[in-house]
């Protein structure tokens, strides 16, 4: 069998921008849709960036990287099945890393629903995060192959809402899983045997939110096997029914081939299996892979995300305050040379940290675990402190909190890129939190918190903190 495909997307009637995107890789029979969220530029960027990361990763990840991202629990799965799940997880981490780097993108995310057709076995492998869907139309009957990760679905499953009540509920767009919202993500997977003549519809909720499954089935059956007409007519029907959301449709048609017999496996994973949240080791591996592949992610960061709020910039505020102070002092004609020097310092300096949180490399961690000699362990730790670039690796998802006089002044998460923290000069208590890890200070003592002193200078001061298992 071969898959014929057609993909279309439409802004809809009421929306002014299209936050949907789709990815197609016909040569590998890999197809998916993404529905962006986060409003305006963020939602549009999230879906487009996810498409770029997933397509690049699907093609370029090594087998070893695929398994290191998904985890040992799924080591018995075939690498070809693991590959799309690893690409999806990598896109989630890449998006989440960007929200830390560009706060204006905070809250962005995207759904993902996709399929990979394994021609040799006639199996359709289905992957899902969020509430975009995959339908199958076979012999005039339609079947939903994915489960929505949405609040409404949870309420229906728990018997707190009926199907009829759900149609008019105000929480239609509230989803419980998406790419980019959290550092880790769960990915649902299942498979089914494809038969000649099957038609598969991949769609964002702009389609099923406006028309019923029965209507989808009628349109597909009426226009079969013209896949271009099916995609166009489904979008037209959604727009005619209200078109309140963007709508994206990928239509796939399984066409039989002469003299080809697929080797269908004896067992097929028909029940949903969930690739769980990544563990710390897997998350670290994702950051390294992202760093290796990011030159292939050809979606430009939105200019709005890079722009800084002029009047919210502490440096600008400081300048304005200084100017007011200068005018006031000038009018009173009484300021000292010492005060003049203070003004110059305020207008020309910044204070804060460029924080790099690291932990021992896998090799050094194993070296410590193998020895019971405390002196030798201390020597290894000392060497790691002196040679951080060679013996340690970046540590992501560490919770960072800075306090001054008992008040929280900053909270964030570390990533493989040093985190820039801008704060006024002064003394701060820095607390780093990660399960079963503590800070290793200069005296090789394990601590939860350390004191840092911020001074005005021409740039943020570099600070490298090493964390080890307690």
Shape: globular
CATH architecture of the largest domain: 4-Layer Sandwich
Give the uncertain stretches in residue-range form: 335-347
| Strand-pairing-aware structural class | alpha+beta
As for the number of domains, it is: 3
Q: State the end-to-end CA separation.
A: 56 Å
In terms of quaternary structure, what is this?
single chain
Give a written overview of the molecule.
Helix 2 crosses helix 3 (79-101). This protein has 470 residues and is an alpha+beta fold. Residues 335-347 have low confidence and may be disordered. It folds into three domains: 2-304, 4-Layer Sandwich (Phosphatase 2c, domain 1), CATH 3.60.40; 310-348; 350-469, Immunoglobulin-like (Sandwich). The chain has helices at residues 40-60, 63-70, 79-101, 151-157, 163-167, 205-208, 213-223, 227-240, 280-293, 303-306, 314-332, 337-348, 362-370, 374-386, 388-391; strands at residues 2-10, 20-25, 30-37, 109-110, 112-118, 123-129, 133-138, 141-144, 187-193, 199-203, 247-255, 273-275, 352-360, 392-394, 399-404, 407-413, 419-422, 426-433, 437-440, 446-447, 449-454, 461-469.
Summarize the structure.
With 470 residues, this protein is α+β, with helices and mostly antiparallel strands. Helices cover 36% and strands 28% of the residues.
Based on the model shown, name its key terms:
470 residues, alpha+beta, Phosphatase 2c, domain 1, Immunoglobulin-like, 3 domains, six-stranded mixed beta sheet, 36% helix, globular
Reconstruct the topology from this structure:
Layout: E1 2-10, E2 20-25, E3 30-37, H1 40-60, H2 63-70, H3 79-101, E4 109-110, E5 112-118, E6 123-129, E7 133-138, E8 141-144, H4 151-157, H5 163-167, E9 187-193, E10 199-203, H6 205-208, H7 213-223, H8 227-240, E11 247-255, E12 273-275, H9 280-293, H10 303-306, H11 314-332, H12 337-348, E13 352-360, H13 362-370, H14 374-386, H15 388-391, E14 392-394, E15 399-404, E16 407-413, E17 419-422, E18 426-433, E19 437-440, E20 446-447, E21 449-454, E22 461-469
Parallel strand pairs: 13-22
Antiparallel strand pairs: 1-11, 2-3, 3-4, 3-5, 5-6, 6-9, 7-8, 7-10, 9-12, 10-11, 13-14, 13-17, 15-16, 15-18, 18-21, 19-20, 19-22
Helix pairs in contact: 1-3, 2-3, 2-9, 3-9, 7-8
């Amino acid at each position: 069998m071969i898959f014929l495909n057609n993909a279309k997307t439409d802004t809809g009637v009421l929306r002014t921008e299209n936050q949907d995107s789709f990815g197609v890789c016909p040569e590998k029979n890999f197809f998916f849709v993404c529905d962006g969220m986060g409003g305006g530029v963020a939602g549009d960027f999230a879906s487009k960036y996810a498409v770029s990361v997933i397509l690049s990763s699907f093609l370029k990840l090594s087998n070893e990287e695929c398994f290191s991202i998904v985890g040992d629990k799924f080591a018995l799965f075939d690498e070809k099945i693991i590959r799309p799940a690893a690409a999806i997880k990598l896109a989630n981490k890449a998006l989440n890393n960007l929200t830390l780097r560009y706060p204006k993108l905070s809250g962005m995310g995207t759904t993902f629903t996709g399929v990979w057709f394994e021609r040799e076995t006639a199996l359709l492998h289905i992957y899902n995060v969020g509430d975009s869907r995959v339908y199958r139309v076979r012999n005039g009957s339609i079947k939903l192959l994915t489960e929505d990760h949405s609040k409404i679905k949870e309420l229906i499953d728990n018997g707190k809402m009926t199907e009829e009540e759900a149609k008019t509920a105000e929480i239609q767009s509230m989803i419980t899983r998406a790419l980019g919202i959290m550092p880790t993500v769960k990915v649902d997977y299942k498979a089914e045997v494809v038969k000649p003549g099957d038609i598969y519809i991949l769609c964002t909720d702009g389609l099923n939110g406006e028309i019923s499954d029965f209507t989808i089935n009628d349109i597909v059956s009426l226009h079969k096997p013209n896949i271009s007409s099916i995609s166009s007519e489904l979008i037209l029907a959604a727009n005619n029914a209200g078109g309140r959301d963007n709508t994206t449709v990928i239509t796939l048609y399984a066409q039989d081939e002469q003299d080809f017999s697929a080797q269908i496996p004896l067992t097929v994973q028909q029940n949903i299996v969930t690739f769980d949240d990544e563990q710390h080791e897997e998350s670290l591996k994702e950051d390294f892979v992202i760093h290796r592949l990011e030159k292939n992610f050809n979606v430009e960061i939105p200019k709005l995300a890079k722009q800084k709020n002029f009047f919210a910039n502490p440096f600008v505020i400081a300048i304005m305050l200084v100017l007011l102070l200068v005018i006031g002092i000038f009018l009173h004609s009484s300021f000292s040379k010492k005060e003049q020097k203070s003004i110059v310092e305020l207008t020309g300096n910044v204070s804060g940290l460029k924080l790099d949180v690291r932990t021992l490399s896998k090799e050094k961690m194993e070296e410590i675990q193998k020895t019971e000699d405390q002196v030798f362990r201390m020597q290894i730790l000392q060497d790691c402190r002196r040679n951080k670039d060679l013996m340690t690796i970046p540590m992501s998802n560490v919770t960072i909190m800075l306090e001054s006089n008992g008040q929280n002044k900053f909270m964030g998460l570390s990533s493989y890129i040093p985190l820039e923290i801008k704060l006024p000069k002064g003394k701060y208590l820095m607390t780093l939190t990660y399960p079963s890890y503590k800070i290793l200070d200069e005296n090789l003592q394990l601590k939860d918190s350390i004191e840092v002193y911020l001074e005005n200078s021409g740039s943020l001061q570099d600070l490298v903190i090493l964390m080890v298992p307690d």
